[in-house]
């Protein structure tokens, strides 16, 4: 379980923007694989009993120099800590996290969380055990009931996101569940191909 960052803002009730920790904010900042596309994360607010579970759905680089063509002091990025410490706080990575449900003691609840996640709420990676628990209901049956949430989110990579999720879950599933996931992946690939042909 790796701390990733804190919520900076939101675009909707389900889509949150998270500023990823950099070396100036923690001794062991997360690596790019920790916040890769399709990575499951946990969002914990101090006053919420049950943490929310989301998935990394997009990313964006923050760079204050982008689009500025005027004269500027050119120094190595590592020297900015000495010459321009405020610049380091402006450069960074912003990830978009789509909420998929909540992690309860009984398993995963794949309904839209009713509570708003506050600015500054901590975000971290989901452990393998938590990932399995989130995809099991109270009867220990595999579930992926957040499928409509992802498809209706209108994210530009919704189909690809679901395919990435299926590929990530497949090794942890039994043969019957793996077959179901492969069928879903084929269906998503077909839908994506049809969509491209229409465009």
List the helices and strands and how they pair.
Layout: E1 3-10, E2 15-20, E3 40-44, E4 52-62, H1 80-83, H2 85-90, E5 92-103, E6 108-109, E7 122-125, H3 128-134, H4 147-151, H5 158-169, H6 175-198
Antiparallel strand pairs: 1-2, 1-7, 2-5, 3-4, 3-7, 4-5, 5-6
Helix pairs in contact: 5-6
Plain-language structure description:
A 6-stranded antiparallel beta barrel has the order 1-2-5-4-3-7. It has one domain. By secondary structure, the protein is α+β, with helices and mostly antiparallel strands. β1 and β2 form a beta hairpin. 23% of the residues are buried. Helix content is 29%, strand content 24%.
Report on the biggest sheet: 6 strands, antiparallel, barrel
Radius of gyration, in Å, reads 19 Å
Total strand segments: 7
* Number of helices, where a helix is a run of at least 4 consecutive DSSP H or I residues: 6
Q: What is the helix content?
A: 25-40%
Order of strands, main sheet, comes to 1-2-5-4-3-7
Order of helices and strands: EEEEHHEEEHHHH
């Amino acid at each position: 379980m790796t701390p990733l960052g804190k919520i900076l803002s939101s675009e909707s009730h389900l889509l949150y923007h998270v500023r990823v920790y950099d070396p100036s904010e923690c001794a062991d900042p997360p690596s790019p694989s920790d916040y890769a596309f399709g990575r499951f994360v946990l969002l914990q607010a101090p006053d919420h009993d049950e943490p929310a579970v989301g998935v990394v759905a997009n990313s964006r680089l923050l760079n204050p120099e982008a689009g500025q063509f005027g004269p500027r002091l050119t120094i190595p990025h590592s020297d900015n800590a000495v010459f321009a410490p405020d610049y380091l706080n402006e450069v960074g990575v912003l990830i978009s996290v789509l909420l998929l449900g909540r992690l309860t003691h009984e398993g995963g609840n794949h309904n839209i969380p009713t509570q708003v996640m506050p600015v500054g709420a901590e975000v971290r990676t989901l452990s393998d055990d938590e990932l399995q628990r989130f995809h099991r209901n109270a009867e220990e049956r595999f579930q992926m009931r957040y499928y409509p949430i992802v498809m209706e989110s209108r994210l530009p990579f919704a189909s690809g996101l679901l395919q990435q999720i299926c590929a990530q879950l497949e090794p942890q599933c039994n043969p019957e569940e793996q077959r179901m996931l492969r069928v879903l992946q084929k269906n998503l690939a077909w839908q994506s191909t049809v969509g491209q042909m229409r465009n």
